[in-house]
Amino acid sequence: GQNIDQPTEMTATEGAIVQINCTYQTSGFNGLFWYQQHAGEAPTFLSYNVLDGLEEKGRFSSFLSRSKGYSYLLLKELQMKDSASYLCAVFNNAGNMLTFGGGTRLMVKP
Amino acid sequence: SAVISQKPSRDICQRGTSLTIQCQVDSQVTMMFWYRQQPGQSLTLIATANQGSEATYESGFVIDKFPISRPNLTFSTLTVSNMSPEDSSIYLCSVREDSNQPQHFGDGTRLSIL
What we know:
Radius of gyration of chain B: 13 Å
Number of strands of chain B: 11
Strand content of chain A: over 45%
Strand content of chain B: over 45%
Helix content of chain B: under 10%
Mean pLDDT of chain B: 93
Distance between the termini of chain A: 41 Å
Number of helices of chain B: 0
Oligomer: heterodimer
């Protein structure tokens, strides 16, 4: 089976940096996705890591360590609109499916 | 990325009735999936919609309750049968163009059962 853990909630200040961690245990790992989901909306794709290391995309970066079963999403220069849930999802190539963690609800305060 | 159109966007239904949700993609995609997201929860995979054959259901979901069709590479339907208040949820269609591409989501169908 698969087990994906991420914090339930986080709070940060506008303009600051926040790191959202995700740990996973799975067989047949073939990549990790991060999604952003605003309340009442569908998830939108943020990043995809399949190899170890850091992927940077504007204010958002995502890191993966396959040996540690660990990833994080780093958000810089936080804006109020970044208040949303952030979902970590693991792609299992054996089953060709994406399994989601419980999501981290981020609240950005002025 | 593919444009995914899902309808209806929302509905309020009576207990015991059934509703069919449609998912249309503007390009041919290899993989299509149906997810459920209950209030305050993350996404749970219901099934993988296989083109031209029966869908592959995850544990806890059965074909009689959630029949799925996928007649071609751009279209799929999910039916929620004999609905009860516990089925109140958001149902999301998701596609992946191939195994090396990100998976994208439709806008979802917000379903409330009275």
